[in-house]
Design a protein that fits this description.
Layout (H helix, E strand, L loop, with lengths): L3 H13 L2 H25 L6 H14 L10 H7 L7 E8 L5 E9 L5 E6 L22 E3 L3 H16 L7 E6 L7 H9 L1 H6 L3 E4 L8 E4 L1 E10 L13 H21 L15 E6 L11 E10 L6 H14 L2 E6 L11 H10 L4 E3 L5 H4 L5 E3 L14 E3 H17 L2
Parallel strand pairs: 3-5, 3-6, 6-13, 7-12
Antiparallel strand pairs: 1-2, 2-5, 4-14, 8-10, 8-11, 9-10
Helix pairs in contact: 1-2, 3-5, 3-12, 5-12, 8-9, 10-12
């Protein structure tokens, strides 16, 4: 299709122009058509606007880097930093609990105040993928495929491009985190240690998680319970071991009762959320013990999510008491309080106005649970959270590009 306009022009020239001019026009038209076709094919399978190309180049590069939360994200940070020319950039480094080096980036241009855009560099594991999770493949429809494409390297790229294209006088900040999928340590590092954030004090933070550009005014946060039962390892045929699972079984029965209560008791639910009942997800781990060995260590991990309208003390106390009854050690880790702004909050209204979509609440969690200590947070970004954390995750490049003018308009309003 790229050749058609040039061939038409050449045909007209052939009819109306002298032979020499016609030959020259033909050669020029064919050369230009060839260059356009080659450049287009080199970058994309079909034509895209320059803003889409810029986003796609950055997002694809980020997707092609493995940044699962257990790994260092520094290669991703190193790829992003050159995109921030003209910004005041601060690096905050830390080591996670396993000693893995991590880095978050804070960037500002235009001075104090304004809006901050936030997103994370890390991803979940590649569970269930049949194709290369880090291919960065862009198909003929302009869809980027790969782990983290939607959640949330694509939205991060869109936010960076939006911020970079703003007039230099418009104050804007980028808060680019890691460990969002696990501990929120990246967001904590920014909230607790960033000198740049303390200096510029953004008025509001837009967390650009994939929401199909629906403004999320509040979401759940979680408490993670790590519950451990100990046994004695031996060959299971000897009768000399003690299987830790037998200690864990009655404890699990009590957890099931808690789960059933969450599903049925309106006092523990929040009707402003879908679903109204809280997530109480249980994972059981015997740490690779073979079937002919008595289990020396059994671990149950629970993620309990709750909203600002729900008191978590019932669940917290019930899990603790079950552990005490059955000899299971219980450790808690809380990510932060659930962020929630009223529907009439000015930031919420601005997001709804610019997106043209009604505000919602969400059952999942984001860095907003930590970043709300800096400024009010709304969660809104391109892509669909419904296809995140799944094999064949993908995001539309045109959809990412369509978010850019919305982000920029929001920044202008907060300037």
């Amino acid at each position: 299709m790229r050749l058609v306009p040039f061939l038409v022009a050449t045909l007209v020239a052939f009819i109306v122009a002298p032979p020499v001019a016609t030959l020259f026009a033909l050669l020029v038209a064919l050369l230009v058509a060839l260059l356009v076709a080659l450049v287009g094919k080199r970058v994309y399978p079909n034509a895209m606007y320059s803003i889409e190309k810029t986003i796609a180049d950055l997002a694809r590069d980020l997707v092609m880097m493995d940044s699962r939360s257990a790994l260092s994200n520094i290669p991703n940070a190193d790829r992003i930093e050159p995109e921030l020319l003209g910004f005041d950039v601060e690096r905050v480094d830390y080591n996670d609990a396993a000693g893995v080096q991590k880095r978050v980036l804070i960037a500002n241009r235009g001075g104090a105040g304004g809006i901050a855009f936030s997103g994370h560099m890390d991803t979940v594991p590649e569970t269930g993928w049949q194709e290369d999770p880090w291919s960065g493949r862009i198909d003929k429809h302009g869809v980027l495929h790969g782990l983290g494409s939607t959640d949330m390297k694509g939205p991060v790229a869109a936010a960076i491009v939006a911020a970079r294209a703003l007039p230099a006088s418009v104050p804007v900040t980028l808060l680019i985190t890691t460990d969002e999928e696990t501990t929120k340590l990246g967001a904590r590092a920014i909230a607790e240690r960033s000198d740049l954030v303390r200096r510029v004090q953004p008025k509001a933070i837009l967390v650009v998680e994939p929401t199909i550009m629906r403004p999320v005014r509040g979401h759940r946060s979680h408490i993670q319970f790590t519950c451990v039962a100990e046994g004695v390892q031996a060959h299971s045929s000897t009768g000399k071991g003690r299987n830790a699972n037998w200690t864990m079984v009655p404890f699990l029965a009590d957890l099931k009762a808690i789960y059933d209560r969450l599903l049925s008791d309106p006092a523990l639910q929040d009707q402003a959320y879908d679903p109204p009942f809280s997530d109480f997800n249980v994972i059981i781990d015997n740490h690779g013990t073979a079937v002919n060995v008595t289990v020396p260590l059994a671990t149950v991990t629970i993620k309990y999510r709750y909203s600002a309208g729900v008191d978590p003390s019932f669940v917290r106390n019930a899990v603790r008491q079950a552990g005490e009854r059955h000899g299971v050690a219980v450790r808690e880790n809380e990510e932060g309080s659930p962020p929630e702004l009223p529907a009439e909050h000015p930031f919420v209204r601005q997001c709804a106005d610019l997106s043209g979509k009604p505000t919602i609440t969400a059952p999942f969690g984001t860095d907003a649970s930590i970043l709300q200590a800096i400024a009010p947070c709304v969660i809104m970004g391109p892509g669909d959270i419904g296809i995140a954390h799944k094999p064949n995750e993908a995001v539309s490049i045109p959809e990412l590009a369509a978010a850019v003018p919305v982000f920029q308009a929001l920044a202008q309003r907060f300037a």
